[in-house]
Structures are given as structure tokens and as C-alpha cells.
Design brief:
The protein is mostly helical. The protein is 63% helix and 0% strand. One of its GO terms (biological process) is Ras protein signal transduction.
């Protein structure tokens, strides 16, 4: 959506709106969606848009920097883990980190001790992770779902651009040398272009692919 706007002021307004969305997600303690939004805003095809970022209000730029630090991978996602541990009530963790912790726990400790006994530390860790997952399934969010928006976002899983396409459009919007003639811009599909060809329910293989990519990214 940021790259679909032709002028820097328009892109800055869209960027500011996404920063506001990220701040709302932080207040809702929805860290998984927050990670997705911040990750998109920090993509190199967006981060290189100096003219666009220069038009952000100071408080917006500061908020983006703080949220980026919150979900950064430094110290094994230490800032996020501390923030998540301090949350009360409804909270949604970063699923990729939760799955990564499960894999790390399973791989780090053996299934049996040398004397044949079960590793109680490993079983206890797996039990704690299972409790967390069960609590997530039973948690009731403090808001009503917008079904139309959920449906649209579900369909958008099939709308994917390659890295080359993103970089090409990024350089069209803000070339390295502004005096050079920019190439022909890419045609971004709107909802009407791809909605009729998308199934009403997400393809299980598509969801599996996204989950695997999320775990590998972590």
C-alpha cells in the first residue's frame, strides 16, 4: 500500500497510518500482528524511501523506532519477551517465536537421560508451552471481529509480490538518481483484480507455507 502511492506526501500519510495501526496493536497486546506490521514497514524496499520518511511527523518516526526495537531479534528477542511477560489479560504472542522455542526445547534436550529416565526439565518446559497455547485458544479478545475485514485479510494471503517486484517499484517511486528517467511503473492489482480468482477459504498449503516462513525467519 505504501509503494502504490505515487508521491512522497501520499506515501508518508499511508506510512503514518500503518504506524498508528502498529501502536493500536501494541495497546491491544497483539504482538503477532504487530510483528507482521513492523516487519513490513522495515522492509528494505520501504526503509530506503528517504523522501517519504523525511515527511513523517517526529512522533511517528519515534514510535516506529520504538516498536522496531520492541520486536527486534537482539538478545533472543529480549525486549519483546519482557514486554509480553509484563502483560495482563488478553495477549497474543509472536507465534513464530513460540514455535521456535518449542523446536529449540525439543532439540536441545534428549528424549531419555543416559540412565533411561525421562528428562523432567524437558517435559516441564513442553508442558508450560502447552499451557500457553491452551490459554491462547480459550482467551476472549476485548473487541468484536470485523468479519468483512477478516475476510479481506484472509484472501490477501494469496496476494504476494516477489522481492524483485518490490525493489523495482521502490526504485520507480524514489530512484537513486532523481534526475534519471524512471522506468515504467508496475501495475499494482486492486481488490477487484484478484478477488474473483481467490477461493473463499484459504488454501491449507498456503497457510502452511506462511507458517514455515515465519518460523524460519525467527
Amino acid at each position: 500500500m505504501v509503494l502504490s502511492r505515487p508521491t512522497a506526501p501520499q506515501r508518508a500519510r499511508v506510512l503514518a497510518q500503518f504506524i498508528h495501526v502498529a501502536q493500536s496493536l501494541r495497546q491491544l497486546q497483539s504482538f503477532n500482528t504487530l510483528m507482521a506490521v513492523v516487519g513490513g514497514l522495515c522492509h528494505s524496499a520501504i526503509a530506503r524511501l528517504k523522501d517519504t520518511h523525511a515527511l513523517l511527523p517526529p512522533d511517528g518516526a519515534k514510535a516506529l523506532a520504538e516498536l522496531t526495537e520492541l520486536v527486534s531479534s537482539g538478545c533472543n528477542f529480549g525486549p519483546y519477551r519482557r514486554a509480553y511477560g509484563a502483560c495482563h489479560g488478553f495477549r497474543l504472542p509472536i507465534v513464530g517465536i513460540l514455535l521456535k522455542d518449542l523446536v529449540a526445547l525439543h532439540e536441545a534436550l534428549p528424549g531419555r537421560l543416559p540412565d533411561g529416565r525421562l528428562p523432567l526439565a524437558k517435559l516441564h518446559g513442553l508442558y508450560q508451552q502447552a499451557l500457553e497455547l491452551r490459554a491462547l485458544q480459550q482467551a476472549v479478545p476485548p473487541f468484536e471481529a470485523n468479519k468483512d475485514l477478516v475476510h479481506l485479510l484472509t484472501l490477501s494471503l494469496d496476494l504476494v509480490y516477489t522481492e524483485d517486484e518490490l525493489y523495482e517499484l521502490s526504485y520507480v517511486r524514489e530512484p537513486r538518481c532523481p534526475k534519471t528517467q524512471p522506468p515504467t511503473p508496475l501495475k499494482l492489482p486492486v481488490v477487484g483484480d484478484w478477488l474473483p480468482d481467490v477461493a473463499l477459504k484459504p488454501d491449507p498449503s498456503t497457510i502452511t507455507k506462511h507458517v514455515q516462513q515465519m518460523v524460519e525467519f525467527m
